[in-house]
Amino acid sequence: MFPTTDHGPRTTDQGQRTLKTAYLDCSSGVSGDMFLGALLDSGLPAERLRAELRKIPLGDYEFKQSHVLRAGLAGTRVEIVVPEKQPERHLRDIEQLIEGSALTKTAKERAIEVFGRIAEAEGKLHDKPAAKVHFHEVGAVDAIIDVAGACAGLELLEVSELVSSPLNVGGGRVEAAHGSLPVPAPATAELLRDIPIYSSGVDAELVTPTGAALVVALARSFGPLPPMKVERIGYGAGARDLRGHPNLLRLFLGQRIELGSRESGVGAEAANSDAGEEIVSVLEANVDDMSPQLYGYLVERALAAGALDVTCSSIQMKKNRPGLEVSILCPPERSDALAQLLFDETTTIGLRIYEARRKVLDRELVTVETRYGAVRVKVARRDGRVLNVAPEYEDCQRLAAEKSVPLKEVILAAQLAYREQASK
Question: Looking at 183-273, which runs of residues are DSSP E strands?
Answer without folding.
Answer: 197-198, 221-222, 228-237, 248-256
